[in-house]
Structures are given as structure tokens and as C-alpha cells.
Amino acid sequence: MKLLFERSQPGRGQSLIPPCDVPACDFDPSLLRAGAPKLPEISEVDLGRHYTELAKQTHGVNDGFYPLGSCTMKYNPRINEEMAALPGFAGIHPLQGEDTVQGCLEALSTLEKLLCEITGMDGMSFQPAAGAHGEYTGLLLIRRYHQSRGDAARTKIIVPDSAHGTNPASASMAGFSVVSIPSNAQGGVDLDALRAAAGPDTAGLMLTNPNTVGLFDPNILEITDIVHKAGGLCYYDGANLNAIMGHVRPGDMGFDCVHLNLHKTFSTPHGGGGPGSGPVGCKAFLEPFLPAPRVCEKDGVYGLFTPEHTMGKVRSFYGNFLVAVRALTYILILGREGIPEASTGAVLNANYLMHRLKGAYDMSYDTVCMHEFVMTLERLKRETGVSAMDVAKRLLDFGMHPPTMYFPLIVHEALMVEPTETESRETLDEAADVFLRILEEAKADPQSLHAAPHSCPIGRPDEVGAARNPVLRYEWP
Questions:
Q1: For a pLDDT cut of 90, what percent of the chain falls above it?
Q2: With a threshold of 0.90, does the pTM exceed it?
Q3: At CB < 8 A and 24+ separation, what contacts does 56-63 make?
């Protein structure tokens, strides 16, 4: 399809921007462009058709099955959007006085209490804008804690080899060295390797439980105890909280701080770059180091305060507020009974789909999974030449979004499947039938899978070239 720039015709336009209703501001000439920007000149009808055509070429949870592993692409209830669109939430300005936004501050305070109850933490900041940003903030908490005690020798963060890729990157950005430890034969943390790695230079451990192969580590209490006895802190990556919320809390497993993905576990939309939210919670001894400002309440009046030893700001103002409103709506609607019911459904769906495929596809670990499972297509590729990429691309022809490919790195030719709790048994059966059909195609006609997808607007673009040499600017003829 054509770009808007290619659709542009001189003299065409539209009147979508209302007249200015405030006094005009004259900027200093040094701040102005020398000439007007060259923008597309498009009629309203052409603009509408352009974006409609784009929408038809995208795939989301409203279009079909979206089993993207470790991303929890669950359905987003429409009432969340209605609440976030209320004028009292959507029409505020972050520089308004505290007395004019009491309801908004109460919403943040209420969500903080609920998320602390779910995670077993004592305090929380909503400033981080996404999960990796939350990781970075949590690691800054750990760094500030050790610095406050004059313990400058703690410079290393232990990260399992099955960790999310952002974990080592976040640790490095926060100024730590990363120590990778292997998984054991059961897919959990190798305790002997952890004991060998933990010592006087250990600042902390980054871990998600269940982990990226969808398994709950039965040694979790021993894992956190080993790190604590070495003087380190334990950080919980909340990307997989959807599997356990309402049943077990990171704080009760021995974790000292945690980030959450509101845009995953708590059903606010994500994908395509945002918006997201990665609030960071912590135990009471770390609260003085949280980002500023935080919300407080006294005698029914809400205000903002700066923690005593705050790390400062990690983002402007108070985070992605409307994402927090969506998450609050979701939690209040589900309630104490619905939260564990949602995680139970996620685990049940994953195990049901895994059971349907087990025997035909090879599972990376032959055991009950949590919210997701990982298949290895290593044998299929060796026998037929059909790769995980081929299978993923073929799924597109059936109106399904592919699972996560080639992750975690410890599983060769991996496909990571996370059906979430919002899919019906009928959808799971249809998905299983498609996977099984593709497997038969791979054995009968592997060449056809190398060319998949066959029915999409775009087949197999040069993804490496696009990532390394992106064309982000249109050059006018």
C-alpha cells in the first residue's frame, strides 16, 4: 500500500483541528523553523481509508488467537477504556494543584494498596513506563540500598540463563556486572551454581517465577535464602505474574522488590510500542529509596511526598496514569475471587493446549507447566528441514498470531506458547488442530512451509535488514 506521502496531492487538505480557544503564544524566533515542515496534503476521505487499510492488515486479540509467550496478550475489557476516558481522569494536567485532583490521587493510592496486597510488598511507585524500565528502577533500588550501607563491593547481579533478555541489559545499565548461572535438568535454577556465584560481591538476583519455560521453581525459598545469606537482595521480574496472582506472592517467596507489567497481567492494551506501565514495589526497608513523588493520605486528604533517600525521578510526573486507571478497574471488577480465578484459567488453558500437542510436538520439559509452555522443533528441523520460523509463518495463514520464536535461548528451535485465560476451549481446540495440520504439512511438503505465509499482504520481509538499516525518513522526490 502507498504511504501518506505518496498519496499527497498539492492543495488538498481538511479541517480536523478546531480553532484555538486560548491566547496565542509568540515564540522566540530562534526556536522557530526557517520554513514550514513539508507534510502530506491529504483529504479526509483518503486519510480515513489509509488508516482503515492499515487496520485491516494488523492482528490483535480482537482479530484472533494471540498466544505470544511471556507477553500475556489477554483480552482487554472495554469497561477499562470507558473508565480511562472519564473526563475527570482523561482531562487533567500533571501540574494541577493537589486539591484539584483528589480523585486521581485516590485512584493511585488505592491501586498501590491492591497491588501491594497481590505481590506481598509494602510500597510502590508508578513512575516506570514499562517492564524493562521497571527492571532498571528496581535495580537502582538495590544499588541505593547497598550504597546507603557503604557496601560498595556489591557490584554483581546474578541472572539465570533462562531469564528475559531485558534482565541482563537492565542490570548492565544500572551499573552492575552480570553473572549468568545455568538451569538444571528440570528447568529451574541450578542451586550448586547459585551457591558458587553468591558471595560478598553479590548485589542481588533477578528472577521470575514461574520462569520463561513456564515452570514454577520448587526450590524458590532456598534460592532466595542463598542470596540473602550472601548479603544480596532478590528482585522479581513480574512478567509472568499472570500465572500465580492470587495464589502465591513474590514477597512471600523471599523477594525484596518487584516490577509488574500492568499492560500484561492487569489487562491494559499493549503492543506496537505502548502505552505500558511497569510499577515497582518493594519491602518497607527499600521504600525510602523509591522514586519521587509518591502519594500519601492523611485524614482523608491525598497529597504527594518525597521519600527520604529517593533516587529522584525515573520519568516525568507520575507515570502512565491512564494505564493505572485501566488496571485498577480490572482488579476492582475481578475482586478477591476473580484474581486467582484468572490465573487458574491461564494455567489450565496452557496445560490443556500442551496436552493436545504433546506426543506430536516435542516439549522442552515433560512436566505440568504454568501459564505457558515451550516446544522444541529441533527434531522436526533435523528430519524435515522445517524450522520454528517456518511453522510460525504458516500459522499466519490460519489467522493466528505466532508464538514467541527462538526464546528462551536455552531451548533450540523454540516456540513459546501462552494462551492466557481469556481463550475458550473451542479456540484452543482450533489452535491445536492447526498446529497438528502444519506438522503433517511439514512431513509431506516441507518446501511449502519455507514459502509461508501464502495469504498475507507481506510474506517474509528482510527483518534483519529492517532492524539494522531502518528507513525512518521519507525523501520527497
A1: 83
A2: yes
A3: 57/1, 57/457, 59/396, 59/399, 59/401, 60/271, 61/422, 63/399
